[in-house]
Specification:
79% of the residues lie in helices and 0% in strands. It is mostly helical.
């Protein structure tokens, strides 16, 4: 690809970042309609194990995130995205041909490692060009693109499964990564010039990690993001089973998931507007209180009022709350943590993303294995995570630009 020499418009840059972020959403949500077939074919004795198709990808992404950021600080942002795309493609190919669930999971870990490039390095690219509330605004608008893919991914996955079988979904992943990385290569110049790069140095890496983890904002942001990811990944891991086994709506699942994602889509732009007025801390705290309140209502309703198979509308509303909460919190928490760390944005993003993602994947996998045919375990864990996150946000220091 011929390197780009002229920067794209702010609108194109935001859309490009959104598509690269969406690598993760597409890689997870397109697999959701395939879980019953995967369970029947590769894990018939324990259908909950099929959920690990999702959390193994997230776990691998967490590992890759820790590596991608520091390398991008040394070599530049775009080369690391290209390298990650190669690992992602290799993982997709291996998963396509894997004969057992264990090998599919291993390939998904590799695919997740590759997806770390688009996940963390694009965030560092935004930080290279923007900071503070302006960065939070860009990330929020990119989330609009990010949320389109969850809306259509299960429909795409269902169509592919119907026509070619569940393994063909991995071919779609190959096409997606090729197109998105080609767009980046042709249109976006490198955002980290050579004079700002840091030579690979173990001592410097340790110093950067120590600096990042020594910041109070970073510590609390990681913990709050872990709680949010734990709830989100737990919900996503079990959502297909909830529709099928709890409410008998498995055939309708892709369409309902599309509706939920589209209803959640405006959350990013709304946050982009509101964060400029109220600040990042206030947006995160307010969102967490909403999750805490809604989860309390849902827990009481499903625990004491509804009988088996009832409460579908409330479950949809509650799930929408969890999805929207990600858009109202994650971009703001990232911007809060990186505010004083622009000189090591890649490493700081890696540390934050790796710990929060791996922690969230572990929590989400645990939540998913508690699925008992009802939404109660999901709602209970989300309530607990939200309560912890609210307490942590009470300790978040107030920065000048965060508000």
């Amino acid at each position: 690809m011929t390197p780009a020499s002229k920067s794209p418009s702010k609108l194109e840059f935001t859309a490009m970042m959104g598509v690269l972020f969406a690598t993760i959403a597409f890689s997870m949500d397109a697999m959701l309609p395939a879980l019953p077939q995967i369970a029947a074919e590769l894990s018939p004795d324990d259908i909950n194990r099929a959920q690990l198709i999702l959390t193994s990808f997230i776990f691998g992404m967490g590992i890759g995130i820790f590596i991608a950021g520091p390398i991008s600080d040394a070599l530049g942002r775009k080369p690391v995205i290209y390298l990650g795309a190669g690992f992602y493609a290799l993982g997709a190919i291996l998963a396509h041909y894997a004969p057992s669930l264990e090998l599919v999971l291993a390939a998904r870990v590799l695919q997740g490692i590759g997806a770390a490039g688009p996940r963390v390095v694009t965030l560092a690219m935004v930080r290279d060009l923007y900071q503070g509330r302006a960065m939070a605004q860009i990330v929020s608008y990119a989330m609009l693109v990010f949320t389109i893919f969850p809306a259509i991914a299960p429909l795409i996955g269902a169509a592919i499964i119907a026509g070619f079988g569940w393994r063909a979904i991995f071919v779609a992943f190959l096409v997606f990564i090729l197109l998105s990385v080609s767009w980046l290569g042709l249109r976006q110049p490198e955002t980290l010039p050579p004079e700002r790069r840091q030579k690979p140095n173990l001592a410097a890496l340790k110093s950067a990690i120590s600096t990042a983890l020594g910041m109070r904002q970073m510590q609390l942001s990681i913990l709050v993001q872990t709680c949010i990811f734990g709830a989100l990944f737990g919900v996503i891991s079990s959502i297909q089973q909830v529709f099928d086994l709890s409410f008998g709506r498995g055939a309708e699942f892709p369409f309902w998931f599309c509706a939920i994602a589209l209803m959640a889509a405006p959350s990013g732009p709304i946050n982009g507007k509101m964060v400029m007025r109220f600040g990042m801390r206030a947006m995160v705290r307010g969102t967490l209180f909403v999750v805490l309140f809604n989860s309390s209502i849902a827990l009481l309703a499903f625990g004491l009022i509804f009988e088996a198979g009832q409460g579908f509308a409330l479950y949809i509303a509650w799930t929408l709350t969890i999805f929207a909460a990600a858009a109202f919190t994650l971009g703001n928490l990232n911007a809060l943590a990186l505010e004083p760390l622009g000189h090591i944005a890649g490493t700081a993003s890696s540390v934050m993303g790796a710990i929060a993602t791996i922690g969230g994947a572990v929590l989400g996998a645990i939540v998913g294995q508690f699925f008992d045919g009802t939404p109660l375990p999901l709602i209970s864990f989300a309530l607990i995570f939200a309560a912890i996150a609210v307490g942590l946000m009470q300790m978040m220091p107030k920065s000048e630009q965060a508000g």
